Amino acid sequence: MRRGLPVTLALLVASVLGGLLVGAVPLPAGGVLRALAGLPSGLAPIDRNLLFELRLPRVLMGAAVGGLLAVAGAGYQGVLRNPLADPYLLGAAAGAGLGATVVIVYAPVGPDLGIPLAAFAGALCGVLLAYGLGRSAGSGPATLVLAGVAVSSFLAAVQTFVQQAGVAELQRVYSWILGGLGGASWHTLLVMLPYAAVSVTVLLLHGRLLDVLSVGDEESAALGVNAARVRLIVLAAASLATASAVAASGLIGFVGIVVPHLVRRLAGGSYRIVLPLSFLGGAAFLVLADLVARTVVSPGELPLGVVTAFVGAPFFVLVLRSTRKAAE
Fold first, then answer.
1. CA distance to 19, 28, 47, 233, per residue, from 25 (Å)
2. Mind telling me which SUPFAM superfamilies this protein's record contains (predicted)?
3. What letter does residue 28 receive in the DSSP assignment?
């Protein structure tokens, strides 16, 4: 923790500053810092609007979504004792996307409350389906991943079917599928804040219990820990975190598997350390990914999910190979 916390905080601060300063229209660092501190900044009115109405909400949204996906991934890995568990691979993100799509298509007027709730229900159902299918087919990390892929594919097919009933909303639905922070606003941040706060708080409070679960169910019971209850609470909290992120930004993969593994290499395997550092590291990672997405083809913009997949897919292969070697 002593080594990991300064590193993740430094990365987060650097990524946030980069996200605020860099773009199609660069902003002066001194003026931005003074404006954020409430001091006379010398920024032109158009630059102030760019900072406070576009870039700052987008950077904060990226930090929130990245932190939620990373801490959810760490929670799934801890409760399932599977290093390959991830919101995207376990069907949680696909289920949340399906829930959000149903609300968008069938309740397009005023869906601010309905989208996160429907996304949460879909995320929880996706995880439970993948977990149940994986357990019925056998044990092991690869089995659970294959079950998650199967469930994600099925839920994506259902989502496509639902889309056909709401052709007028296709553009909004596809923004969820591709993932991105282009629609970030202060209103969206306020809507997702309660869900994010509850889910992250619950996950952080269960760090010690996840450490106990890692030794096995019988040993946990001997120490007075109800393993089934802990699993249910952590699964629900991780699914709520995933749903909050997906409802705000769409489907963004691999954050929940890349960041927790990097944190473990940096600061050790205790979930009392992995969970908070994953939240900070995930925030920094997604802000940097979004910075790449909106600058590498400027004035155009890449889908954020494409950038995270470009980094995450090779990383996932490395994790899968290392897990297989450890099992042998």
1. 12, 10, 9, 45
2. ABC transporter involved in vitamin B12 uptake, BtuC
3. -
288 CB-near residues (< 8 Å, 6+ apart): 15, 18, 19
Structural tokens at position 56: 């700052």
State how far the Cα of 17 lies from the Cα of 107, in Å rounded to an integer.
38
Whole-model pTM: value is 0.86
Q: Which residues of the chain are modeled with pLDDT < 50?
A: 111
Q: What is the pLDDT of residues 55-80, one digit of tens each?
A: 999 999 999 999 999 999 999 888 88
Domain count, the chain: 1
- Domain range enclosing 43: 4-327
HSE-up of 130 (CA within 13 Å, CB side)?
37
Residue 7 CA to chain centroid, in angstroms?
20
CB neighbours of residue 9 within 10 Å: 14
